[in-house]
Amino acid sequence: MADEFENYRKPDKSIDWGKYYGERLREDLETPEKKIIELEDMHIFKLADELSDYVWNVVQQWDWFVKKTIGDQLVRSADSIAANIAEGYGRYFFGEYAVFLYYARGSLYETKVWVEKAKRRGLLKDGEYEYIIERVNRLPKELNAVIKNIKFQQKKYIKKW
Known about the structure:
The protein is an all-alpha fold. It has helices at 17-29, 43-59, 64-91, 94-120, 126-160. The chain has five helices and no strands.
């Protein structure tokens, strides 16, 4: 079976995540049937939205005290990732879009802190933790690729004027 990341491996066998996510983003942006990608079709939005729904479902099962303390913070920070991606998308200006993606990235790192606390305190089952942390670790690379592309598009647009 072919390695999904075969074309993105560096000589030291690590994966060039920037190249990998950059190509995925370009494929999304160059879809011939659409000039503009809808928010709901963006991979980073889908991933962030799925993460926040999963976190919600996990936290819902916790007892009242845990929900009130860690659970509330974890759900808010996880929800904020997708919300900031959406708000930036709706701004239609390169600079503002990038700023909201930075906010999303900040919320993502906050989410990671709460997930690690929840794990240390025995609130997350191993499978729940693995599901969440895999996405939390993947999202910064994807957000960075989108930010990089937005900055590239902004420079290209400005040069036209």
